[in-house]
Write a structure and sequence with these properties.
441 residues; alpha/beta; seven-stranded parallel β-sheet; seven-stranded mixed β-sheet; 17 helices
């Protein structure tokens, strides 16, 4: 085992099966948190706080750490909302779960004397977010992965705020020309419905299967009815002849906003900011995510949207590619629409940490950005975009770490070979970023 790897006591988060076995063979994994049977800590038990949480030894050091992590409570609450799909719990429930989560994660890091964390994804589930923030305070090195839409490639970062900045990472492999072309359809959107909100049929099915959930199901149905009413009231037909920026909304709660959206995990804040930035003769066309439900789309979300007189809410049945092609630019938090826009020759305004923000033609939002300079920008050609992508992919890991993306690997997928590739990629990254001699890449 190379010195650069053997010096670390590793916490593995989220890795399972063959990949976890490969990591145990390559790294000194003291503790694994996952659904794998061999994991020292079960993911769901920690996620749902069904495990025994030790009483915190709230000495001065732990208290200082807690005070630091508590600064990020609002972000935790946003991320943690995915745990409560039917009825939002009282504030005290969310806060006490935050304290218990902190205690559990702090105990794991201390008990196993962890000094390197390997995460299978960017922290966005609740406990993993708290874990990474504790690690930041304790100066524990952390590596987070993020499965790419490019087949069998995953991005790596040591800090969330560096995600999407490919030039900050070392080259792990040789540059390989891919001849990349934008797919006509994204695999994860194939079965998307126009309206995914909680319907009468869904409520009836839920109550028939789990009668004890009837009260929660009915509450959720009321939320969904309000959601559909607000959407119907504000949706307008597609106008013609207007100059507009296209802003497709993200599914929430989701990693794309709560984890890498930064301050703009509040999508309405991004829209309000954009509304004030564009000239008076420019509209903003908004389209809802086809998978969005009533979750995080309450009546006050739409009251904020309605107040923006230059913002037009379109039916999510409208064709996104056509909206991109006819726009003067695309604005997004971190969405795939920004990546598509580049290939259709449109400049992109990214409010969050989009994975493609290293590309020419992508602008991180800044109030000082000149509108005319933005709209006059012509992104590189598709061939140039593919070349830039290939260079960035040399800094990416090889393999599939998210089961949902296995469909991109084809029929030849081999779990053991994939695990070896993932482990090798992480080993190269750790060795380059945190070498034994202390000279970081």
């Amino acid at each position: 085992m190379p010195d650069a790897l053997s010096q670390y006591r590793v916490l593995s988060v989220g890795f399972e099966n063959e990949i976890l076995n490969a990591l145990r063979a390559r790294f000194d994994v003291r503790c694994a948190i996952s659904a794998d049977a061999s994991a020292e800590v079960n993911w769901d038990e920690l996620y749902l706080l069904k495990l025994d949480v030790p009483a915190p030894a709230m000495d001065a050091d732990m208290r200082a750490c807690f005070d630091y992590v508590s600064q990020h409570f609002i972000r935790f609450a946003d991320i943690n909302s995915r745990r409560h799909y039917y009825v939002t719990p009282p504030f005290s429930n969310v806060y006490n779960s935050f304290v218990l989560t902190f205690s559990a994660c702090y105990d794991i890091l201390k008990r196993y004397e962890i000094d390197l964390i390997l995460c299978s994804n960017i922290a966005h589930e609740g406990f993993d977010f708290v874990l990474v923030e504790i690690a930041r305070f304790l100066k524990i090195r952390t590596v987070m992965c993020y499965q790419s839409l490019i087949p069998a490639r995953f991005w790596l970062t040591t800090k969330v705020e560096d995600f999407g900045a490919a030039d900050l990472n070392p080259a792990l492999f040789e540059v390989e020309p891919s001849g990349y072309r934008l797919p006509e359809n994204w695999f994860y959107m194939k079965k998307s419905a126009v309206d995914a909100s909680y319907s009468t049929a869904m409520a009836a099915k839920e109550i028939a299967r789990r009668p004890w959930r009837a009260p929660a199901a009915l509450v959720r149905f009321v939320y969904a009815r309000q959601y559909r009413s607000d959407v119907a009231r504000l949706t307008r037909p597609l106008p013609t002849g207007e100059r507009y920026i296209y802003f497709p909304l993200h599914l929430q709660p989701e990693l794309s906003t709560s984890a890498i959206g930064g301050d703009y995990s509040d999508q309405m804040l991004a829209l309000e900011t954009l509304s004030a930035w564009v000239p008076a003769d420019v509209k903003i066309y908004v389209k809802e995510n086809p998978k969005q439900t009533e979750k995080q789309r309450d009546q006050f979300f739409y009251k904020r949207l309605e107040a923006l007189k230059n913002v037009v809410l379109l039916s999510n049945a409208e064709n996104s590619i056509e909206l991109i092609r006819k726009s003067i630019g695309v604005a997004t938090i971190t969405g795939t629409a920004g990546w598509e826009a580049l290939f259709h020759g449109k400049p992109v305004l990214a409010f969050g940490l989009a994975w493609y923000r290293f590309m020419k033609g992508v602008f991180a939002f800044d109030h000082a950005l000149d509108f005319d300079a933005f709209t006059a920008t012509v992104p590189p050609s598709p061939e140039e975009l593919a070349d830039a992508l290939d260079k960035a992919l040399a800094t990416a890991g090889q393999g599939i770490i998210d089961e949902h993306y296995r469909v991109l690997a084809g029929a030849d997928f081999n779990a053991d070979a994939n695990a070896a590739s993932v482990s090798e990629s992480l080993a190269r990254y750790v060795s380059a970023k945190f070498p034994a001699d202390g000279t970081a890449a």
